[in-house]
Write a structure and sequence with these properties.
The chain is an alpha/beta fold. Helices cover 40% and strands 18% of the residues. It contains eight helices and nine strands.
């Protein structure tokens, strides 16, 4: 009863606190957090950071963008798929290219990397960055690896809900819930230019 009374008081306040506008990957769908929803456009970022990132990506020429998360590191995702050349963003700053960290003093997001390069593929844990990759490059092979850890952190229906939205963008999800089984299913689908040489 107390929770119901609190909800009755809080819900009208939340409605009043909505943002005026949101940039939504799932546009024209709308979330309850904003009054108006707009599609996602190009990602703006500082010119110095842009130059540093452009120079690095041109010099290293990574083939894949890897999105880590939950209990999967970028290194493990790349290794288990047999991807030798990759770039991955880091939450604590910088980017990881083939296991080495660069530009550590800048926070770089996947959308910034995608604005400067078109990878051969994108693979990672459930993230809006996967959807952004497909929005920017409609024919880009994009794979999602789901984990039981995501269910523990985000709730028991998280992977199923993410699958429903991700499939609208053409993001590939495996039939298996087992992480190793997902890698096995995706490995043959990796473009031939990306895997490590045997």
């Amino acid at each position: 009863r107390t929770a119901l009374a609190k909800a009755a008081l809080v819900i009208p306040q939340l409605r009043a606190l909505r943002a005026d506008v949101e940039f939504n990957l799932f546009h024209p769908m709308k979330t309850p957090y904003a009054k108006r929803s707009l599609p996602v456009g190009t990602f703006p970022f500082a010119s110095e950071k842009r130059r540093a990132l452009e120079t690095l990506l041109a010099a290293k020429r990574p083939s894949a963008l890897v999105i880590d998360g939950f209990d999967l590191t970028a290194e493990r995702i790349a290794r288990d798929l047999g991807v030798e050349s990759y770039v991955a963003t880091r939450r604590d700053g910088g980017i990881d290219i083939d296991g080495r960290v660069y530009i550590e003093d800048e926070i770089i997001c996947a959308e910034e990397v995608l604005a400067l390069m078109r990878p051969e593929l994108v693979v990672g844990c459930p993230s809006t960055s996967l959807a952004a990759a497909r929005c920017l490059h409609e024919d880009l092979p994009t794979f999602c690896i789901t984990t039981p850890e995501a269910l523990r952190i985000r709730g028991p229906c998280f992977n199923a809900i993410f699958r429903r939205y991700a499939e609208r963008f053409g993001i590939a999800l495996a039939r298996s819930d087992d992480v190793a089984g997902q890698f096995d299913e995706f490995r043959p689908q990796i473009p031939s230019a990306v895997p490590a040489c045997a």
